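Changelog-adjacent note: as of this version, every example in the card shows the full chain rather than a window. The one below runs 134 residues end to end.
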Amino acid sequence: PTYTDSGNDTVTDNVTGLTWQKCSAGQNNDDSCSGTAAGYTYQNAISYCENLSLGGRDDWRVPAIEELYTIVNFSVTPTIESNIFPNTSDYYWTSTPYSPSLSSNAWIIFFTYGTNGYSNMSSNRKLRCIAGGA
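Full-length structure tokens:
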């Protein structure tokens, strides 16, 4: 995918049309996304994105697993374009529930390797909000 850094702490994916929070939640909104990404429980992640006002937008949300996978790049390590989304690794929430039988879990993506799994919603995981689409 090709990306446009909008210069307002957001990045637009020119293929999907989705807008991403450039830095992970809790990091400084600077060119290198300095600082440490914060950990959020699932519900706190939902609330954080719903209340986010960034880049002139207020329609932020937690991405679905299919959306978060659109920024995974398996040809680099960590598996994300670090020139576009700097200082990213670790486990990131998606809004996608894991399964009906494990209703207290949601899908996560581990950007260090581009793998997925599930996490209990009470666990603290990293977050990058999305706007547009769905």
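Structural remarks: The radius of gyration is 14 Å.
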